[in-house]
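Chain A, query sequence.
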Amino acid sequence: WGEGLQGKKIWKKKSGASVSLTAYVIHNAVFAATLIYGVVLGSVAYMFNGALVLPILIWILVGLYRYKTPTKMEKIKTIVLFSIIVLMGVFAFLGKNTAVEMIMFLFLVSVVWAELQMLWELYKGSGTGSFEIRTNLVWLASNAFFFMYSFTIKDWVFFVTTAALVVIQIVITFMYLAKKKKGLVHEGEGDVPLVHNERLVEEEKNNIK
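Chain A, predicted structure.
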């Protein structure tokens, strides 16, 4: 649901401003890896999770490639990460489960990097762009739950990872709210301030005349 809202906003506004392309390349790779990992483990839950979210993430990534101008580095990251996914699939086919588990672990850790990229993308823009705050809040709630759950089962790797994600997503939330409070909106590929002052509006009208 949360990612669906983000995708809908990108395609509706025909813009990917303030949404990190790198973050969604990583998210796509992570859920593709989750699907493969589920097949290796024989876990219906993992397979269902990967198969359910991956199509939405692909839709978002296509939208970002269409409405943003990917840098050379972003294109390289896309090729590298999806090459790793292919390699993971080969390892799974060959029955090299340890290699599959190592790649899955690296992808899980990379989610923290993805969220940092999202934070940076929102920070460097003057407005909120096409960023969908409800998507962030859905993931925040999910990670907060798994943060507490990982503590109870003493899964320290997952505990540290989810703790980092919760902190980053809280910062993102407050940054978004601060920008909205300033009345910043997005138009096209650039961020511009939303003018509330009626006198300034009239001045603009006069300048146009």
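The two ends are 46 Å apart (CA to CA). The chain has eight helices and two strands.
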